[in-house]
Design goal:
Layout lengths: L2 H15 L24 E6 L2 E6 L20 H17 L5 H8 L4 H11 L14 E10 L3 E9 L5 E11 L2 E4 L20 E2 L7 E2 L4
Antiparallel strand pairs: 1-2, 3-4, 3-8, 4-5, 5-6, 5-7
Helix pairs in contact: 2-3, 3-4
Length: about 210
């Protein structure tokens, strides 16, 4: 911050402190929301062969040993954790758990219905092989308010390729839930990119590094 900017802030604070309006005295500005800060007090544990994060501060706080843990803080960091956990579990949940994962972690809507139809036609019985599976590398919160966030989740393939995928989460019934995009009709063209396709990243510039140790 420049000297002039700091001085301007001091003047504003002085004027507000001397206001004749009793309501203005003692009022504190709302704390700035830091969308780039990583979740606090994090440990990483494997789920179906992929390391996923758990925070003692930001969640998940409920059913942490289940296929569909819930309970994320109403913060950007809670949204980040919900996005990463949800993406991993939607991709890796075995046949015995995917219905629970979808019901608990995905917001209702056409996107969830379409995913359920597609997933019911597939089969996953084994855990992923870490040597051939992407690992979570970082995040960027590109949009955030108290009801909706868009988190770009970065991953690294074993060969070193960086990619990111945008994940939208909604604050619903007191928790963050993934909002899957509704079908657009482009699904009939197998060459058309989907809204959830990974995008190659040239670097991690603009992202917060966040990965298992």
């Amino acid at each position: 911050m420049t000297t002039s900017a700091a001085a301007a802030l001091m003047i504003v604070a002085t004027v507000m402190g001397c206001s004749d309006d009793p309501a203005a005295v003692g009022d504190a500005p709302a704390a700035a929301i830091d969308v780039a800060a990583p979740p606090a007090e994090v440990t990483w544990r494997p789920y179906q062969g992929v390391e996923v994060p758990y925070s003692d501060v930001d969640g998940p706080a409920a059913d942490t040993s289940s296929a569909a843990p819930t309970g994320y803080s109403a913060t950007p960091q809670g949204a980040v954790l919900a996005a990463i956990q949800g993406q991993a579990r939607l991709a890796l949940a075995p046949d015995t758990a995917w219905a629970t994962v979808t019901r608990e972690l995905v917001a209702p809507g056409d996107g969830r219905d379409a995913f359920a139809i597609a997933r019911s036609a597939a089969s996953i019985t084994d855990a992923a092989v870490p040597a051939t599976t992407a690992a979570f590398t970082g995040f960027r919160v590109s949009s955030y308010d108290e009801s909706r966030a868009v988190v770009d989740v970065a991953t690294t393939m074993p060969g070193g390729q960086l990619t990111a995928v945008p994940v939208t989460v909604l604050r619903s019934t007191g928790d963050w839930k993934i909002a899957l995009p509704a079908p657009t009709g482009a699904e009939d063209d197998p060459t058309a990119p989907a809204a959830t396709d990974p995008i190659p990243l040239p670097s991690m510039d603009g992202f917060t590094a966040f990965s298992a140790p």
